[in-house]
Amino acid sequence: MKKERVAVIGSGNWGSAITRIMANNVIEHGNLFERDINMWVFEELVNNRKLTELINEKHENVKYLPGYKLPNNVRAVPDLIETVQEATILVFVVPHQFVLKVCEKLKGKISSDVKAISLIKGFHVSESGLKPITHVISEYLNINVASLSGANIANEIADEKFSETTIGYTNVKEGELFKILFQTKYFRVGIIDDVVGVELCGALKNVVAIGAGIVDGLKMGDNTKAAVIRIGLLEMRKFMQTFYSGIKDETFFQSCGIADVITSCYGGRNRKVAEAFVLTKKPFEQLEKEMLNGQKLQGTLTAKEVYQVTKRKDLEKEFPLFTTIYRIAYDGLAPERIVKDIV
Amino acid sequence: MKKERVAVIGSGNWGSAITRIMANNVIEHGNLFERDINMWVFEELVNNRKLTELINEKHENVKYLPGYKLPNNVRAVPDLIETVQEATILVFVVPHQFVLKVCEKLKGKISSDVKAISLIKGFHVSESGLKPITHVISEYLNINVASLSGANIANEIADEKFSETTIGYTNVKEGELFKILFQTKYFRVGIIDDVVGVELCGALKNVVAIGAGIVDGLKMGDNTKAAVIRIGLLEMRKFMQTFYSGIKDETFFQSCGIADVITSCYGGRNRKVAEAFVLTKKPFEQLEKEMLNGQKLQGTLTAKEVYQVTKRKDLEKEFPLFTTIYRIAYDGLAPERIVKDIV
What we know:
Two copies of one chain form a homodimer.
Chain A: E1 6-9, H1 13-28, E2 37-40, E3 45-46, E4 49-50, H2 51-58, E5 74-77, H3 80-84, E6 89-92, H4 99-106, E7 115-118, E8 123-126, E9 129-132, H5 133-141, E10 145-149, H6 154-158, E11 163-168, H7 172-182, E12 187-192, H8 195-218, H9 222-243, H10 255-266, H11 269-280, H12 284-292, H13 298-312, H14 320-330, H15 337-340
Parallel strand pairs in A: 1-2, 1-6, 2-5, 6-7, 7-10, 11-12
Antiparallel strand pairs in A: 3-4, 8-9, 10-11
GO molecular function (chains A, B): glycerol-3-phosphate dehydrogenase (NAD+) activity; NAD binding; protein homodimerization activity
Organism (chains A, B): Paraglomus brasilianum
Enzyme class (chains A, B): oxidoreductase
């Protein structure tokens, strides 16, 4: 049997943390996998040195996951095409705004029997609505694409603290192979036949986290926060089941569902900035500059994208929490309406 | 049509808070309900005066819900039989250790067309296993019994902060009637055809909260906590679906399910005492004395009851989290095993 060769496309905080795991696993399961893993690194200078050179010299992503060694079977590669050469498994873990660019470069260069899995959060906004990233990759490259998402704060996983994740697979044999590639004693993988459900949970939970942050800012107490989280989870499910096919109820019981929603609503930047929005009355744009170094907040952006889709289909009243969160963030609606307009 | 007359059996913190709501609702829906509500109060002396007299004079449960007025259509009654006379709806909200005593007194005195709903948390431990409180009441009194449970901290509801609850009904018409009796603008009621599922969530969530507290004490981070909560919710579901019939997956998406689990795992005494158990290494019994004025912790007690049931059926390995929590609380197992023994 031919062994699988893994290539990782992306090398940020999450990409580096998950590559540490895979690099150990391909060695442990040497009967299934080739030893060496190429990791595509978007080249940049760090202290006047190329990041790829630093990674390959120090076996550490000194910029995005400092303090954690990468196994020495990981090789940082600045050229995308070189990265994927001979690979039979592609792991996509770039920020979602880079997906199209990456796919355009890879188009026509990937064999149709290559397996792929996407760890990317977010949607691709297209004319027809919100397209799952796995579909974008799949259409460009003409390959099956699985998804992985869960309550996975990268640094806690690098610290080898116990956590879980979920893989949505297109066929069960592939799902089991990916499970072997990703699972460790402290990083537990569940697999489920629902690629889109798994990945969209990772995008939509950020909207719910904005809602949780608003409730925190209003100091409305534990009952209210739990209610908003629950309603948010149900609107996530309804949104997915309205606009996509094959979404399973069971997906929401997995790590990608409730667990990730909980983590995002009690920790995480979306909750934090939304709380500050209520407390300081500053607009989100200003808070992004002050609190996130100008990075865009995912939750408010996704709330807007979701609102546009529901509005276009005249369904915004079917999603009262999502719609209210959008209006609070973008339309000047008073934060207090969050619990009034969902009744 | 004959109007319904409501009697409340119980007058603690939660009983008083929910009676405030019902007392307003029976007036608002005067076409369906008689105006006056009897509330059974276990007589005791407060500052040398009878509690029932104080409540009826001040329209406030000065001992268990001080600071919140009870509408004046609520009458505190020290005699149980007098309380339920003429009642067509019984609302049970006594601590679960008093259920049998109450039922024995009421036995033979309740017409079989009386409707009942139980807000009581916990099991009745019998020789055949763990019996839902609604079954106990139903068997004693030969009436249908619905259940109500949710993310409902009593004082937050008395403060009229937004929250949700769930009613498990035996028939939908009755479910809708109870919804009218309990729902307000700020207290939203969902109804579902799953009496036992709703009530047992309220009992089992305390075991999960012990697990969450242990993780907090170990400072294992957000991923781990979310994972333990998720696994806990799934063991709750599995336990119920193994030992009871008619439990619906959908129940766990309601307020009684995920929302109540979340509230209990981030606030609440079970979480707090379990955290202290890890940090101080004192036994639970001692912590109960120090932190709870000697009151018993519900979560550890339920963990033990659940363990005995699963052990008797040789199924304790099917519930690794519940079993590990039991062993940490009662068998001296190291708290760190909480994430090792569930893999």
